[in-house]
Amino acid sequence: MTGIVSTFLTHEGGRPITSGIIADRRHEHVDAGTMDLRDLALLAGRNAASCAYGKVVVIGRHGISTFQATPDGATAPVFCGNSTAAAIGYLGGGKHRTMVYGVADGPYEVSARIDGATIAQIWLVPAASPEERS
What we know:
mainly beta; 2 helices
């Protein structure tokens, strides 16, 4: 187990929203998608007070990847703005630009501004094509 930074808990209006763990693995020479994350999935834990818990955020050499810990100790890639904000908060002050990986149709470019405890994010995503469903 390497590069564990901290656990995180995001809030909105005083309510806990998202919790998990951040790992800084920028020094490793593999992509987050091919890392063995079982050790982090076990540490991500459960926070019954938050709406979303068990997030595993990896800050890699090329950007940020977020995964959802599953009950069996595995992980699955997910999109999570709050987890991304937690990782950007760890990276610290001012303005940041990073790529977010791990989602099926990503990566996405994210620009963020940190102002105290608030992190404003702008996600640049490709335009979606309308799809008819019944």
